[in-house]
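[Q] Does anyone have a clean structure-token version of this?
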Amino acid sequence: MALDGLVISNLKRDCQNFLVGGRIYKIYQPEQDELTLIIKNNRTTYRLLLCANASLPLVYLTTETKNNPTQAPNFCMLLRKHINNGRIIDIRQPGFERILEFTIEHYDELGDLNQKKLIIEIMGKHSNIIFTNSKNQIIDSMKHISSQISSVREVLPGRTYCYPPSQGKISPLEVDLPYFLQTICQKPSNLCKAIYTSVTGISPLIANELCYRAGLDGNDATSSMTDEQTAHLYGEFVKFTEQITRGDYEPNIILKAGEPVEFSSITLTSYPDCQTKHLSSISEVLQSYYSMKEKVTRIKQKSTDLRKIISTSLERASKKYDLQMKQLKDTEKRDKYRIYGELLNTYGYDAEPKAKSLTCLNYYTNEMVTIPLDPTKTALENAKKYFERYNKLKRTYEALSKLTLETKQEVEHLDSIHNALQIALEEDDLTQIKEELIDYGYIKRRKSNQKKKKTKSKPLHYLSSDGYHMYVGKNNYQNEELSFQFATGNDWWFHAKQIAGSHVIVKVPHGDELPDQTFEEASRLAAYYSKGKDAPKVEIDYIQKKHLRKTPGGKPGFVIYHTNYSMMIEPDISQIQKVD
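[A] Here you go.
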């Protein structure tokens, strides 16, 4: 999740293709540490975002627009004065560093042709945007770095610009076999760290990917490598540098459970359990990745209160169920006490006064049994005590049999709501979940909002390889609607066996027989959108809709069915087409 030298080199290639020769039409500074350059080239307008934010530095071509302050900041005004209408003549990435240099040609106030450089350094909290003249002197920078802040280099107007120190690293394009063997392989660290601390622009992500491709564990020590393993690792490193030299980039995003995990400019084979989404450009990757990340983060933030309510209620209900089951187990002794009472009524006359026990024949099993007695009481009084204990446990059993069933249903209901919260993607999805929590008393409805909110949330829609439409409910209300209003008799219904999950409906035209491939794909969807999505395989029940019955008085989305079919399937939906 870093803009390493590889991603920057990909950005440089794209910017060279689209921006070199173009003129800077407008310059904006929407944020304190962010610039937007509007560039026109070959009758096309491009929008270049440069962000030096300490927590999220970025550079990419974007299609998004932002609101700009009514009065431009000083740095923006300075750039407008010098390079507005200037022409970009070159874009460089020095030494595979996380730096992009834009060389801009423009006419000064006297009409003379001059060159300036706009340099962005993508280096975490040290990120900066620096403006220099043709003599490499700093005209100004977005962040001023004095000697009091950094003893390594100053970034101030009038100072000569110099690159950040390389920390003993070299460009991957300069790495040869002797350097690889003598520097990288001799470092007293693990393989992954040895690579990214020796080579410029290589992030831990790429270092780990190279180790994975070579069949090695990046956490293994360099000293543990055999000559053959070293040769494999170097071979993968050479393939990597050749790919960069050719400019053969593969912009992609790694997704897990629909959430973006990583991005890169090469295919990441070290994430075999995740989905890889390839895009046409690295700018599109960055814009899509951070947009998706922001969307997922925003939904998680907005659902914090709901998560807390569900977690608290689920924990309380689970503890209550465990306690009830323990109490129910204690009632298993009730029949023993009844038999003791009956046997004492029958054989009590044999008991000696003040006896602590009575051994007699249990005529139910034809075995001898020893009955504990209270020596201060007669046999008949002991029998009465055992009958009282039996009756008490019997009443407890009858009450708990009903209560445990209700509590179990409550746990299952809350579990299903929690699963719905895990797959919520839009605010409307959260609204429906909140409505269900209100309807079942977990949240109080405000007097000012007595009516239910109308939402635009709809079930997920997929298309099978055979062309059949498959629908996935995102929550219990959608599950209920899909199964009992939307689906018709011959449609097929899928659900993860005995665990919380979404209902999956496959629409089947009358008379059609569903192909095996569609059965498998619908089962994959049911597995993926269930509580068991992280398991290697999930058991899925499937049956035609006409055999489904709603649970009498049950919660939404809970059904009854018999004579169903089942299959074990992997929760992998990466090859299933989603319909927007």
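[Q] Thanks! Anything notable?
[A] The first helix runs from residue 5 to 19.
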